Amino acid sequence: MKSIAYVVERENIGCMPFRLQYGTSRRTRSVFKRLLLSILCGAGFALVLPEAASAGGDLTPLLPPSSVTSSTVPPNGDSNPYGVAFVPEGFPRFGTIGPGDLLVSNFNNQANLQGTGSTIVKIVANSKPVVFFQGDAGLGLSTALGVLKAGFVLVGNVPTSDGTFTTIKAGSLLVLNRTGDIVAQWTPAMAKIDGPWDLTIFDQGNQAKVFVSNVLNGTVVRLDVAVSEDGVQIKAATQIASGYPFRADAAALVVGPTGLAYDPQRDVLYVASTVDNAVFALFDAGSTKHDGGKGVLIYADNTHLHGPLGLALGPNGDLFTANGDAINADSKQPSEIVEFTPQGRFVAQLSVDPVQGGAFGLAFSQTRSDFVRFAAVDDNVPNITVWRLPFDDSGR
């Protein structure tokens, strides 16, 4: 069989305990097959994949990996990084963040109480993160983090007063400007939210569709918003999905519908339902005015899924989800990020920590002519790793 070689160049990295597993797929555009270099710490390799790998092909030493691992802990000691978002091209440059910057939201405070973190940090490679936003103590900033290219950051919060489910509240969505100031706060009544756990944005410039998963009532809402230099306004809030199970969890605080990924070309929203240990597809998600229930089941894999949380659509068309290990845990597969096709075929998986419960938020940057960046947190440490992967606009 003909082999295909990929090469990743080094920027700077500390060694991470990663483990990669491939499926039997012959897809040549798998993102995780490109990440193998970054798994093999301290050395570099040319990938002879995928055919040669399945046939026992060699991995030839060549160059060190291209990835950077950075702390997510701000000066106030917030921990448990959840949300991950890249600042898109076109974002105004006259602020404290700019195009290409990477943001991370923190769910826990310095005492590691869940639902009490109050900071969003800008990641600085090989250095300490810079605080972009710091709100009142006890916010509990969730995985619901996204950036509008007009100059605004959206972040959800699911607060507690003592780190337990007993005191959990419905929370809100905050709208921040490019200097980290709050310009709006969307309440449950305004936005039909109840524990905004994750979000994804379809940004159309002067308008956007914001999809939000609610961990306290098992629903997904679509917010149709107008965007201008003055701010972001909700024009309509529509519940488009429901029926995802949710409950308190001794280790994870709460589990329910989490990761969202939207494909605007097909108008499909993908939903990672943690308790179901499955991923669903909602068709006509950007236009429907009705609740479509859970949608269509596209991926249920008890071998590789262990409580899917964060979800992202990769530049190669595959989906990526982070296993939180609160559901269907497997000590031999800790903290895995799983790559699979929209048709529900397993492609590969990457372990970001040798201990369970480390994987959560992940994101891809916009694809440029020659590369794309992929970022994933390890909230056990806590830190974030960013891989720079060679890619062209065709996804090759």
TrEMBL record:
Domain of life: Bacteria
InterPro entries, alphabetized: 6-blade_b-propeller_TolB-like
Protein's recorded name: NHL repeat containing protein
